[in-house]
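ugh ok fine here u go
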Amino acid sequence: MFSQENAMLASLAISAAGVLFLLLASMHFEANTVEISGISNAMEGRLVSVNAKVLGAYQSKGTAFMELYDGTGRIKAVCFEPKGEMIKFFCKNCFASFEGRVQIYENAPEMVIERVSEWE
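structure:
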């Protein structure tokens, strides 16, 4: 049977493990702001955020295609079925914060945009 001291130590250990799990999980679910030059094929599936200028953009059949530039590099980006306010940022020379997952397309990384917001 557990003594009160052992029960407290077990509770503390379980709590610490839970906090560690939440920290590790948040790294997967929260976008890290990165420079475009730092995005590589090894980051496939990771959620990232870039503050960038749209060098070019067009839409076709409900999908937006862009080329983003942040001063360190360029990356192609795609947004499937853009919603509401997102569309206003998909124009040449617009500046915004783009959040999305890295995917590999034609052996190069690109972003699949999930959220767009004002560049802060």
